[in-house]
Structures are given as C-alpha cells and as structure tokens.
Amino acid sequence: RADTAMYYAKRSGRNQYAFFSEEMQAISTRALTLGNALHDALDQAEFSLYYQPQVSLSTGKIIGAEALIRWHSKTLGDVSPAEFIPLAEESGQILAIGEWVLRETARQIKQWLDDGIEPVRIAVNLSYAQFQANDLPLIVSAILNEYDVSAKYLELELTERIATKNPKHTITILESFQQYGIKTAIDDFGTGYSSLSYLQRFPVYKLKIDQSFIRNMTTNKNDYVIVGIIILLAQQLEMTTIAEGVETKEQLDLLKQLGCDDIQGYHISRPIPADEFTRHFLEANIKSKN
Ligand code: C2E
Ligand code: MG
Ligand code: MG
Ligand code: MG
C-alpha cells in the first residue's frame, strides 16, 4: 500500500522525494507483499501461539509461560513477529490480531482445565494500539468471562517504551487491570526511558530484564552491573524479576547470585507449540483424566 511505502521513505530520514534507492524499493515491496498477505491471515487461520516456559531460580519449577504469536503464511512461509507486528501496528490490523491472541490464550487455558491439567499463568504481549484503548481492561475481562477462565491464569506484558509514552494513561489502565485481578509485567526493561518516580507508581508486579543485558552479562562488566541494579531496584519496589533470553548455565548461575527470581530463554526451552508444551512442561500438573 502506498502509505506503507511512504512510511518507509520517511523513516529513512531523507527527503521523501529524494532518490528512492534499490534497497528502499526492496524494503517497501516486501512491506507491501506482507501487508497484503497479513490482510487475509486471520480469515485463513494462519496464526498460532507458541509457549515459552518461565522457571523459578529458587525451586527450578515452571511458574508460567509467555505466549508468542507465529505466522505461517500460505504464500510467504514463516514470517517473524519482529517483522510483521510493526506492520500490523501501522495498518491497524494489530487490534484484531491482538484480540485473537487474547482469545486463543483464554481458549487454550480453558482446554487445559477441561483436560484436568492445572495450567500455569500465561503472559500475553500487548501492542501500543491495544493499550491506547480505554476499554482494554473491560475487553480482556469479558474474554476471560466468556471462556470461564480465572484472571489468575493471565498476565499482560507491556514494553517499557509503551508504558512510558503516556504515564498517566498507563497508571489508569494498570490500576484497572489490578482491579480485575490481572497481573502485569514491564517487558524489555532497561531499554526505555522509565523515570524512577513513575516506575514506582506503576502497579506492575514484574520487571522483565531485556535480553540485550543478559546476552553479554558474563563478559561485559557494564551489562552485569545494570542487571544487578535492576534486580535491586525491583526488590526495593517489591516487584518480581525475570531475565529474558537466558541461553547458558553461566548466565543462570550469575542471575541466581544476583537474586533474580525467574528466568526465560533457550537454556530452558525455545517457544514451542501448545501440545509439546503440555507434554514437556505440564505433565506434573495433570490432576485427573476427565
Ligand atoms: P518479546 O515479547 O520481548 O519476546 C521475547 C522474544 O525473545 C521472542 O521472540 C522469543 O522467541 C525470543 N527469545 C526467547 N528466549 C530467547 C533466547 O534465549 N535467545 C534469543 N536470542 N531469543 C530468545 P519472538 O517470538 O520472535 O517475538 C519477538 C517480539 O515480537 C516479542 O518480543 C514481542 O515484542 C513481539 N510479539 C510476539 N508475539 C506477540 C503478540 O502476540 N502480540 C504482540 N503485540 N507482540 C508480539
Ligand atoms: Mg514479551
Ligand atoms: Mg521482551
Ligand atoms: Mg522484545
């Protein structure tokens, strides 16, 4: 679509009437192709959710999972959310996709309960456009009611960038979630611009330490120090900490020493489909066969 191409032209930082390079042409062609395919993706049932376990460092037990969207396009093959979520944000399709993610999560939790399996709390990522809507807490709560699922099984992730765009609005929405009994977490923490005074007023229960700090914390002193400070900060604010992108035993050991509560990352498991997640991580939670 023309406005998508224009968006890329503007984002290049040059005059939009300037020479349209081959590279820019390729990027906008890809954006157009993806945008068109994305249009039919919901109707064609091309989305699915993968689940990545979250584990407590003190008990070694699974405490939750993050739901991550996957798109298998019939025409384009697998497309990463890092590529299509920003496009869906641009086009407004993110609202419908975001609602699908919430519904699919509620449906899966209900399925586990019906199968006699005690679920773990599932964390869902929120987009900027979703978070802008004043009725988001009402929508989420209505979906939980519709599927007869307790709010205790759901967690919502908001990136630090989104949370800090309009702190007053953020506080209002987060307080509303709190009233519905829905826990919230700040995602990719450390990469945005939280003012400490606002952070302390955000009623979130968890900080997710961005994986960029975890990646080099065993070799880079600065990253190691930042991770330690985030953990201390969270402890003072009585928030839980989870480290994202933990890939090695060395990282796990350092995080444990620093007092981090939980971890998520390839060291435990990659994001996996629901059936695999059930077999590998919820086996111990099977209560009865209905
Ligand atoms: P995120 O929410 O920060 O999710 C974590 C990303 O890190 C996921 O990428 C996950 O697969 C990846 N990851 C997890 N452990 C490791 C590790 O040990 N090493 C490395 N290198 N990576 C790891 P993914 O699934 O590609 O998702 C990328 C981003 O797309 C997410 O970042 C999130 O911002 C967005 N996203 C994914 N699903 C949804 C969704 O349903 N709704 C919205 N609005 N955004 C989503
Ligand atoms: Mg996330
Ligand atoms: Mg993250
Ligand atoms: Mg991220």
TrEMBL record:
GO terms for molecular function: cyclic-guanylate-specific phosphodiesterase activity. The keyword Ion transport does not apply. Residues 31-285 form the EAL domain. Keywords: c-di-GMP, Membrane, Transmembrane, Transmembrane helix. One of its GO terms (biological process) is cellular response to nitric oxide. This is cyclic-guanylate-specific phosphodiesterase. It comes from Marinomonas arctica. The chain holds residues 438 to 727 of 727 of the full protein.
